[in-house]
Amino acid sequence: MSEPQGNLRRMRRLATVLALATAVSAVAQTKYGNTDAITQARLKAHLEFVAHDLLEGRGTPSRGLDLACEYVATQLKLWGAKAAGDNVTFFQKFEIPGSPADNKQYTQNVVAIIPGSDPVLSKEYVAIGAHIDHVGMGQGSGDQIFNGADDDGSGTVAMLEMAHAFLTGTSKTKRSILFVWHAGEERGLWGSAHYANNPTVPINSIIAQLNIDMIGRSRPVGDNKDSNKMLTGPDSIYVVGSNRLSTELGKVLGDVNRGLYNLKYDYHYDEPNDPENIYMRSDHYNYAVKGIPIAFWFDGVHEDYHQVSDHVDRIDFRKLERVSRTIFASAHFLANRTTRPKVDEK
Fold first, then answer.
1. Helix 317-336 and helix 40-50: axis angle, to 10°?
2. How far apart are CA 237 and CA 234, in angstroms?
3. CA-CA distance, 342 to 344, in Å (whole number)?
């Protein structure tokens, strides 16, 4: 049965609109990568495991931290990432600083690579990092498990979903992507210090290091608690150090953000003589010491920071998704640029 002419015209217009939308989506994916693969549901599913009581707060060293590392490595194996730790494994083991000679203790970073497609640029890396540990367990009655859903469960699962997005997207980057989940950050940046001094790729081949440490919390509207005064809102995030070594890196990251969700990038902790010294308090710092341009995404100290109340049910998954996608897009864009960010500051 033939359609009336009016219906045919509407169908043709709809087909044209859908074709244009598909073309725009393809352009966006080419520029920023497979951002839509990172979803709230997937982030939540990972975080419900990583911040579960069974992992006993992921202290360094602990069986809970070992379980978290095994979980991350298993996901990477399933998705087809390249192991980049010791002896063709995903684990880079290191001795706990200060452990006694007659009872040495060890822990591990988790390290993976997604190889680039360009025969020359694939020898360079955009590094993405987060710390997989937290502060473990306390003593006494009641809840004594420091689950660390935001610190840094949020960064841990954001990296997992970025790896998945890189591995399942149709647009492969020219440079390789290096993922390092650092252990021992809470004990003194141990894992990042070990990796920076014992890299599994040439240290001068890392063009930038993007660090993620707490990106899942938002200050609710009308919250006047002093303990939350430095917590960012649902569409805001602190970016630390992006202009310290390379003003070009800072500009690139700003441009990518404006082209995606246009989050409010707050540079408060880049102020000279920051009394909290946030710039030196997370894993990116050990890469910056090596002269590698860095950027650090951070939602701010809040009422549940280093408390047993840092639970999954307090995470703003909309914010976690949007910040994760923005960092992923930044890494994707950097990995496809013709040149690496120029180091122009001491």
1. 100
2. 8
3. 6
Alpha-helical (H) ranges within the chain are 5-32, 40-50, 63-79, 155-168, 185-188, 190-197, 247-259, 284-288, 317-336
Q: Dig out the tokens for 12 from the structure.
A: 């043709």
Nearest to 189 by CA among 94, 329, 327, 313: 94
Amino acid at the residue 110? V
Tell me which residue of 8, 160, 15 sits closest to 75, measured CA to CA: 160
pTM: 0.91
d(CA 69, CA 212): 17
Judged by DSSP in three states, 298 sits in: strand
CA separation for the pair 139, 57 (Å, rounded) = 13
Cβ within 8 Å of residue 120, ≥6 positions away: none
Q: What does the pLDDT look like over 302-337, one tens digit per residue?
A: 999 999 999 999 999 999 999 999 999 999 999 999
